[in-house]
Amino acid sequence: MTDELNPTAASGGEDDDRAAADALYRELLDRIGESNPQPRLEPTRRALELLGDPQNSAPVITIAGTNGKTSTSRMIESLLRASGLKPGLLTSPHLVRVNERIMIDGEPISDAALVAGGDDIRPYLLMVDAELTANSEPPLTFFEALTVLAFACFADAPVDVIVLEVGMGGEWDSTNVADAQVAVFCPIDLDHQARLGNTIAEIARTKSGIIKPGASVVTAMQTIEALDEIRARAGQFEAEVAIEMQDFALESTTVAVGGQLLDIRGRAARYEGVFLPLYGDHQAQNAIVAVAAVETFLGDGTRPLDADVLAEGLGQATSPGRLQLVGIEPTVLVDAAHNPHGARALASALQEYFDFDELALVVGILADKDAHGILAELAPVAARFIVTRSSSERAIAADELDETVAELGVPHTVVDDVEDALREARGWAAESPRRAVVVAGSITLVGDVIALADAEDWKQQ
């Protein structure tokens, strides 16, 4: 079709495409928000059925867990692409624009393709909305509609394999309408307790719902409680389970310029001196899980990955918003770190992979998160906190968050506006080359800062 070959020319130009894509995003935002997911699958399944079940158009790898899902998903996607496949990737949330969530062959979906997908699915979403309303149920949510949109775009592309990052939980997350050939688990910890349960076992039970008949399972190291739940679910379907430290492992990691060098014991072979352009032991762990997942997908865990594939796949891996260098002179790093587990990993990476004397931490946290737990993990590496509030409606007010920071005994200031907070932090860091700025606490805050750096033309490319 002409539109597919030259969508910009057909639709009137890039500016028109961008405006239409932004309008589509606003349309999605009018639905029930991501903070209030509905524990159900049938409405998403019904919309996809009306569309011809595009979720079945390619094999699927699904990634669940508490921390590391996005990074692991992106590494899996990069390895698959290096293997010669054309992957589709769905991740969430986005940092700046919604297009980031739907990746096709390594690139965010174009505005034109996003709008075309939205036009294709709109009548079917409205049909399902009407059916739900008639049954006194809430209409399709933002994330349910986005999931339908992603599957439709993947089928239209078309892609060879679909990589799905679970939105929340697993069992009733709308991504779970697809039956994954490989179910991948990143470390499971406490998060979203109001939705998923108050214990790791309860949360793991929900997340293990992504395991389907015929699936293979790859899991990072877990607590005994979490691993028991994964094994129990896998046992129901006689699914093979590959476990970190038992079936694959990180043998060593060495700090290198721009990242780290990994020695990996995969499921099928050892891989030595593999460069990963990401910082932190947690990213090394994400990398070995990704390698094991791709070994499992491509060769049932018995066929080694080609050395060039591994070097290209991990060597070109990116994870925006995860210990990302955004600015230099002074150095500005951003990291989502939106729960204590993630904050602990960030603090560890800052100490092990960087050599700054003092760090100013610009922090903003959402109301449904463990603010005290996050800040307590970050306090040991902070010379000072600058407390602010992101653009999210769910963000904790800066004055309220300041009360939590005050309990930790770290010097701090409150700057309600993100732009002013960042200007103060950068000014402080510019006084010494041994200082840096770290922005953390929520993905929305990280997105605000990346957009600001881009607008002010100091963003590191």
UniProtKB/TrEMBL annotation:
- Ranges for domain Mur ligase central come to 63-294
| Reactions mediated catalytically | (6S)-5,6,7,8-tetrahydrofolyl-(gamma-L-Glu)(n) + L-glutamate + ATP = (6S)-5,6,7,8-tetrahydrofolyl-(gamma-L-Glu)(n+1) + ADP + phosphate + H(+)
- State the EC number(s): 6.3.2.17
On the tree of life, the source organism's domain of life is Bacteria
Needs which cofactor? Mg(2+)
- Domain Mur ligase C-terminal intervals: 321-442
User: Cellular component per GO?
Assistant: cytoplasm
Q: Does the keyword Nucleotide-binding apply?
A: yes
What GO molecular function terms would the record report?
A: ATP binding; dihydrofolate synthase activity; metal ion binding; tetrahydrofolylpolyglutamate synthase activity
Question: Where in this protein does the record put region Disordered?
Answer: 1-20
Answer whether the UniProt record assigns the keyword Lipid biosynthesis to this protein: no
Which InterPro entries does the record cross-reference, listed alphabetically? Folylpolyglutamate_synth (IPR001645), Folylpolyglutamate_synth_CS (IPR018109), Mur-like_cat_sf (IPR036565), Mur_ligase_C (IPR004101), Mur_ligase_C_dom_sf (IPR036615), Mur_ligase_cen (IPR013221)
> What UniProt keywords apply to this chain's record, in alphabetical order?
ATP-binding, Ligase, Magnesium, Metal-binding, Nucleotide-binding
Q: Which NCBIfam families match?
A: folC (TIGR01499)
Which PANTHER family does the protein's record reference?
Answer: DIHYDROFOLATE SYNTHETASE-RELATED, FOLYLPOLYGLUTAMATE SYNTHASE-RELATED
Concerning its family, UniProt says:
Belongs to the folylpolyglutamate synthase family.
Name used for this protein in its record? tetrahydrofolate synthase
Name the species this protein comes from. Schumannella luteola
